[in-house]
User: Which sequence fits this backbone?
């Protein structure tokens, strides 16, 4: 049977049609991400979630910032934008306000969204802006060589913290919730189906949706912390617990005890666009749609 | 098929079957699919693809249950499974 698969390979010129190929700029694949990088599975679950949500792909756009994860915008076959460092959210906000019909997905990394772009993140969440934000959290600045980030666990080794990180990292779901996000979830790359379902749910609801995805960076984070990629994955498997609707305050991703995963927040609060229309464009308000 | 607890409806519910495909030249040899395939369908291979990585070998193609887990965990869009039709009879033969 392996033989037959091989033969079919050859009849199609060694190339077979992957189910996501229609959403990929296949001429750019293989992508630049290192072997075993967690961005790939996150990206693939995101694409599957977008497809499953049934949104019109012609009016769906992806916006990325800078960093390894930021390259995603260059691989998706949708209208996509690779913006300046930290500015994916304000760019996406502008696009959504200018053309409320768009479904806007922000796909970026922890450094981009929570360090240089942290201020934009909290304000978009506060406004309940109609965006889906997916954050690949690999615990460091991968692209620039593995420096400590706002998400690096306490005492983890990076190029800028060779003896261990003296700081304490952000608890991203708590930050998102406290700032006002109305949908908050966290998964790992091992939880591809749950992640896909969260993306699907986020795409079909209004308001600000935030999904954190724990993803290995074997080259820059794993290597310095003596963690082989399969060990990181094993950690995601044995050292996590799924608790939907857990209180965001108990979600610190490092420290003792298992990492809590799940869909934590899913509340109905009027989104920015509907509030804005009600206040300033009452003639549009009864429509209730974008 | 080996179960740790045989489902009550194992006789009537046909198992899904899949055929797994590897787009070899996209693979970067991370081994995630090999480690996480629940049916151990995949195995490390000796041969190289054109980038010099070892793509997985489909060692037990008949055991694939089309769960798509390899497809989900692969960082490279390099592996996927498609459903193949199966008759309940085929399952029983397998179980025997
Ligand atoms: S440096 Fe890290 S995050 Fe960047 S592509 Fe490599 S493994 Fe992925
Ligand atoms: S679809 Fe599931 S059973 Fe089949 S090869 Fe992939 S992981 Fe294994
Ligand atoms: S998961 Fe993908 S990249 Fe990794 S070994 Fe399997 S096919 Fe290759």
Assistant:
């Amino acid at each position: 049977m392996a033989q037959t698969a091989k033969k079919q390979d050859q009849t199609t010129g060694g190339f077979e049609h992957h189910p996501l190929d229609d959403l990929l700029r296949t001429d750019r694949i293989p992508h630049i991400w290192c072997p075993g990088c967690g961005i790939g599975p996150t990206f693939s679950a995101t694409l599957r979630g977008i497809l499953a949500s049934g949104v019109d792909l012609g009016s769906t756009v992806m916006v990325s910032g800078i960093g390894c994860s930021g390259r995603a915008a260059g691989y998706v076959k949708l209208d996509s934008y690779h913006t300046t460092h930290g500015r994916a959210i304000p760019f996406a906000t502008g696009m959504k306000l200018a053309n409320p019909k768009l479904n806007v997905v922000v796909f970026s990394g922890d450094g981009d969204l929570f360090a240089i772009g942290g201020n934009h993140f909290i304000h978009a969440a506060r406004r309940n802006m109609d965006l889906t934000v997916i954050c690949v959290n690999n615990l460091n600045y991968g692209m620039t060589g593995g420096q400590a980030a706002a998400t690096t666990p306490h005492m983890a080794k990076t190029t800028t913290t060779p003896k261990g990180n003296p700081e304490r990292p952000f608890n991203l779901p708590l930050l998102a919730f406290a700032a006002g996000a109305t949908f908050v979830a966290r998964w790992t790359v091992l939880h591809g189906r749950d992640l896909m379902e969260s993306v699907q749910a986020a795409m079909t609801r209004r308001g600000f949706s935030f999904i954190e995805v724990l993803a290995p960076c074997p080259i820059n984070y794993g290597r310095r912390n003596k963690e082989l990629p399969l060990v990181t994955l094993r950690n995601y498997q044995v050292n996590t617990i799924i608790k939907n609707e857990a209180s965001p305050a108990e979600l610190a991703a490092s420290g003792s005890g298992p990492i809590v995963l799940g869909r934590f927040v899913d509340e109905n609060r009027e989104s920015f666009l509907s509030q804005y229309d009600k206040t300033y464009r009452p003639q549009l308000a009864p429509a209730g749609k974008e | 098929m080996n179960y740790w607890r045989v489902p009550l409806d194992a006789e009537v519910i046909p198992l899904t079957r899949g055929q797994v495909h590897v787009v070899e030249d996209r693979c970067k040899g991370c081994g995630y699919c090999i480690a996480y395939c629940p049916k151990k369908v995949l195995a490390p291979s000796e041969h190289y693809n054109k980038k010099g990585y070892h793509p997985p070998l489909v060692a037990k193609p008949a055991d694939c249950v089309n769960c798509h887990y390899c497809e989900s965990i692969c960082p490279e869009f390099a592996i996927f499974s498609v459903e193949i039709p199966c008759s309940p009879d085929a399952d029983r033969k397998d179980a025997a």
About this structure: The mean pLDDT of chain B is 88.
